[in-house]
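Batch manifest line 245
LIGAND: (2R)-3-sulfolactic acid
JOB: complex structure
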Amino acid sequence: MEKEKIRNLEVCFSPANFPFYQNKEESIIVIVDILRATTAICTAFEHKVAKIIPVATLEETYKYKNSGFLIAGERDGKVIEGADFGNSPYNFMGNAVKNKTIVITTTNGTQAVEMAKNCLDIVIGSFLNLNALCEMLIKQNKDVLILCAGWKNRFNLEDSIFAGAVAEKLNNEANYSLNCDSAMASVDLWQIAKNNILDYIEKSSHRHRLKKLGLDDVLEYCFTPNITKTIPVFKENYFVEISKL
Ligand code: 3SL
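JOB STATUS: finished
ARTIFACT:
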C-alpha cells in the first residue's frame, strides 16, 4: 500500500511570486541559485568557511567592508568593485575561506534570501549538497518550499530543474505530495534534463550570459551532485553549517 502523503512540497519559480505562498512560516525554505550563488555558498562551507552573511544591497556590503569584513559579490555576473572575491565557486575554496566570515551580495541569490529572511527555517540547496539536503528535509518532516532565485524575478531553467530533483526524491522516497503545478512542472523538467544535464542546460540564458563573460568554467562543477554533505542554514543574519547550530 502506498504511504499516505502528509507533507507538502511547493516550488516558487521566482522571488516575485514568493509573497503569494501562504504556507511560508510552517515550511522549510530552500533557496536555490545553481548558477552560481548557492553553489558558491555550499562550496564555501565544504571548505570550512565559518559564516556567510548574505546582503541585498551594495551599500550594505560596503558598510561591512569598511568595518573590516571580507566581501564577495557580483552584479550581472561582474565582480563588484573593491570585492575580495567574485561569485565563482572556485573563489570559495581552501585557505581563502577557511574559518573566515564572508559577506556576499549577488544579483539574484542574495535577493531571494532577503525575501525569505523573516521565515523561520531557511537552508541553501545546490546540486553539490542534493542528497544531504533531501535526507535532512525528510528527517525534519516539515512542509518544504523551494524558492528559485531565477534571474531578475524571471524563471530560469537551472534552478527549476534542481527543484524538480528535490521534489522527485521527496515524493518518491518520503511522504511528500506535490500539490502545486510548479512542483509538478519542475519534476517534468528534471525528467527531461536529468540524463544529460549539461546538454540540457545549453539552452539556459544564464549559461550564455556566463559564457559571454568568460565565467562558464564552473558549469560542470555546478551540476555535479553530492560533492558535499554540508547544509548552510540561516541564523540571525548569517548562514552557518547545520551541525554548528
Ligand atoms: O544572481 C546571482 O545570484 C548569481 O549567482 C549570478 S552569477 O552567476 O554570479 O552571475
